[in-house]
Amino acid sequence: MNKDRTSIKAIDIFWIFLKIGSVAFGGVYSMLTFFRRELVDKRRWLTDEEFAEGVAIGQMTPGAPVVNTGIFIGYRLRRLRGVLATTIGQVLPSFIAILIIAYFYIQYRDVKLIQSILKGVAASVVGLIASVVYSMGKKLLKDYKGILFAASSFVCLAIFKINPIALILLAGIIGLIVYRKGS
Amino acid sequence: MLRFFYVLLYINLFTIGGGYAMLPLLQREIVEHYHWLTNKEFIDSIAVGQITPGPLTIMNAFIGYKVFGLCGSVVAMIASYLPSIIIVTIVSHYYLGFKNSWIVRSSFKAIMPAVIGLLASVSITLARTSVVDIPACAIAAASFVLITFTRTDPTFVILGAGIAGALLY
Q1: Each residue of A107-155: pLDDT tens digit?
Q2: Chain A residues lying within 8 Å of B92, measured CB to CB
Q3: Considering Cα of A107, then A112, then A115, then A116, what sign does the dihedral take?
Q4: In this structure, how many other beta carbons lie within 10 angstroms of the beta carbon of residue B69?
Q5: Test mutation, B12, B68, B108, B143, chain A, max A CBs within 10 A
Q6: Quick check: A122 contacting B, CB < 8 Å?
């Protein structure tokens, strides 16, 4: 497998990720499907196991998981050149899209119709985040310890306004102590 | 702008557990601490991040553009992805040891639930700004149900909510 990879060009990696980055609406999870289809099924640049590793690593590192998975894949394929090719390719289409939207947003945000649209959108965003909370909670909060971590970080932020970064660090440290024996 | 770069850089360093984990940190720094955006503008940028292809972190470019113009958006992108590039490259190099290390696994086991709690708190803060009347309650509830129980793509839900907003208000 590694022998074949020297023939993979960084520019080809870039084009594939550019393509994935332009069509993968709906964020993270639709993108992973595209990755698998292009890189594992179609081109056989990666094995299924490597892909699964990449997804796991993406979720365990800071930043956007899908970008991190892309970085991992880029590194596996072509080291640093691969990393640059995947990151830029993946992010560029949405970056351009967002600049266009930002331009129009600033120009027209005071128009009455746009304000009505944004009001509807803003309500929907709250529903969306609530849905993320619900789905993540259902998947991850399985024992009383997890529920306790979730509840106490909620109280610390909602009521005591403690810095969320401090809370994440603290949760990590407590986790080291609490879950040490279990692992 | 240097401060903006620095703030995004450390927020992304602590965004563990998915793009949404970034929201509590962003809301705290960008809205409450530095007042670069109002709560309403912050919600708009989440929506924009969601309807564009690619990861939610792209919303940082929107924030950058809104606050500092074109340069701001480029700075936002670099600050958002630089920590990932460095850390994931290092991790990829030693990946077996990383994934199986008990330090990483046990701290993650606690961080993920904590992130859920933080996110729940943020959704309440944002609801106070945007879910203020009956049509908004209906849209928020309908979005929640559609995304949670029907696997509808969030992009379409947000676009639909925009149309509903245009009709209802």
Answers
A1: 999 999 999 999 999 999 999 999 989 988 998 898 899 999 999 999 9
A2: 57, 71-72, 75-76
A3: negative
A4: 13
A5: B143
A6: yes
User: Which residue in B22, B25, B78, B107 has the most chain A C-beta atoms within 10 A of its own C-beta, making it the best mutation to test that interface?
Assistant: B107
Predicted model pTM: 0.89
The CA distances from residue B133 to A121, B44, B127, B136, in Å, are 14, 18, 11, 5
φ, ψ of residue A122 to 5 degrees: the values are -65, -40
Residues of chain B in contact with residue A158, where contact means CB-CB under 8 angstroms, are: 120-121, 124-125
Is the Cβ–Cβ distance between A141 and B115 less than 8 Å?
no
Cβ of B95 and A72 within 8 Å? Answer: yes
pLDDT one-digit tens code per residue, B122-131: 999 999 999 9
**Domain boundaries along the sequence of chain B:** 2-96
Give the residue among B107, B151, B75 at the shortest CA–CA distance from A176.
Answer: B107
Other Cβ atoms less than 10 A from the Cβ of B93: the count is 11
Which residues lie closer than 8 Å to B148 by C-beta, 6 or more apart? A131, A134, A135
- Residue B43 CA to residue A62 CA, distance in Å, equals 23
CA torsion, ordered A158, A156, B58, B42, to nearest 10 deg:
20
Q: Which of residues 60-79 of A touch B (CB under 8 A)?
A: 60-68, 71-72, 75-76
3 state DSSP class of A62: coil
Helix (H) or strand (E) holding B31: none
Enter the ipTM. 0.89
CB nearest to B92's CB, from A31, A72, A113: A72
CA angle B161, B48, A162 (to 5 degrees): 100
Residue of A118, A124, A126 lying closest to B123 (CB–CB) = A126
